[in-house]
Amino acid sequence: MANFESDKATSRGAALPEVRTVIIAEDEHLLARSLCEELTGLGYEVLGMASNGRKVIDLAREKRPDIALLDLRMPEMTGLEAAKVLYEEMGIPVMIVSAYSDREYVEAAGDLGVIGYLLKPVSADTLRVSMTVAWQRYLEKRKAELECALLEKRLADRKLIERAKGLIMQNLGLSESEAMRRLQKQSRDTRRPMAELAQAVIDAQELMEGVATPRE
Fold first, then answer.
1. Which residues does the UniProt record annotate as the domain Response regulatory (predicted)?
2. Which of 80, 18, 78, 28 is nearest to 49 (CA)?
3. CB 45 within 8 Å of CB 22
């Protein structure tokens, strides 16, 4: 599966990964085979095919593809139900390939974060263009999610540091700037992140308070 582990590289505009590997969920074997042949002809590697939503989830856990193409109506679990699991559990984006264009299905797909919705029959040209556009949409969405997570982490780290700084000021009688310098020096000396040290200070304080407070 494409690697998104580097938040910084993604946010700085580094070369983004291309979609390469695909899995398919389609309960009609001939349609699945046709789709597989079209994808292979376009240069994608089809890692496997499944006949229903539950099987495609198992396949995804084993193969970890870049993207999944799912039929909408399948036995045991629908394509939309499977799409929710694939993205929320494994971060695998989904395109729906269906004969149904009902508004309720399209809107439900959008609510679940499905990145593309194709109507059968799908030509090779349509598939090629749609895969490219859908993948770019996914990359933009993923980048935004990573940047949001990074901002949330920075905010959480800042709160930890402020709390730890307050405890150091209280316990050692230091000014705010002195307490911050203590944390910064300890971070440099131990080569530990400031947030990690701050959490250690908070944990130690809570431990001491627990020891000092007699239990009834």
1. 21-135
2. 28
3. yes
Q: How far is CA 167 from CA 101, 164, 170, 203, in A?
A: 60, 5, 5, 11
What pTM was computed for the model? Answer: 0.65
Sheet of strand 67-70, all strands in order from the earlier edge strand to the far edge: 45-50, 21-25, 67-70, 94-98, 116-119
Residues paired with residue 31 on neighbouring β-strands, in sequence order = none
Q: What is the pLDDT of residues 69-82, one digit of tens each?
A: 999 989 888 999 99
Place of tokens 């974060």: 113
| All structural domains of the chain | 21-122 (3.40.50.2300), 148-211 (1.10.10.10)
Q: Convert the pLDDT of each residue in 56-111 to its tens digit.
A: 999 999 999 999 999 998 988 899 999 999 999 999 999 999 998 888 888 888 88
Cβ within 8 Å of residue 31, ≥6 positions away: 71, 120
